[in-house]
Amino acid sequence: MNPTPSPGAEAYVVPAGTSIGHIHLQVTDMKRALAFYHDLLGFEVMLDMGTAAFLSADGYHHHIGLNIWHSQGGRPAQRQGVAGLYHAAILYRDRAGLAAVVRRLMQAGYPLLGASDHGVSEAIYLDDPDGNGLELYWDRPRAEWPTTPNGKLTMYTHPLDMPGLLKSVSNEQ
User: Fold this and answer.
1) Where would you tag: which of 7, 62, 90, 115 has the fewest CB atoms within 10 A of its CB?
2) How open is the CA angle 91-94-99, to the nearest 5 degrees?
């Protein structure tokens, strides 16, 4: 299959307001996946069918789908030498919300793989128990995003001020 548009085809731009609605992951152990996404990260289980579960933030029908239909007892996700999802990103409403989940992960001794300040956002990187990459982040207000003198967005990767992030949870709760 060739994904290149035919010569002379009109350029297409995704309509404003379009967003990515949810992720659906194949996991190898449903109990372990639910312990991570529900018990540790705090997503609400909207429906648990045994071989599939649907989890939500804030009562939505689902943001995360989990299933073991073709993966129960299988191998974890691979990072090297295979195509696939690099990571899914979970957007928190504010810095305090991100800080609260990061504090929870740290208290549980859950391994974090990285922490970055991208100028537009602050992000924590980790793998779920099946090796699926996750980014937990919050976006700074657009007015604070770094831009060039002519107004073009510019991003970077700097170390995250983890003590500053963690202080925000106690300041806002």
Assistant:
1) 7
2) 90
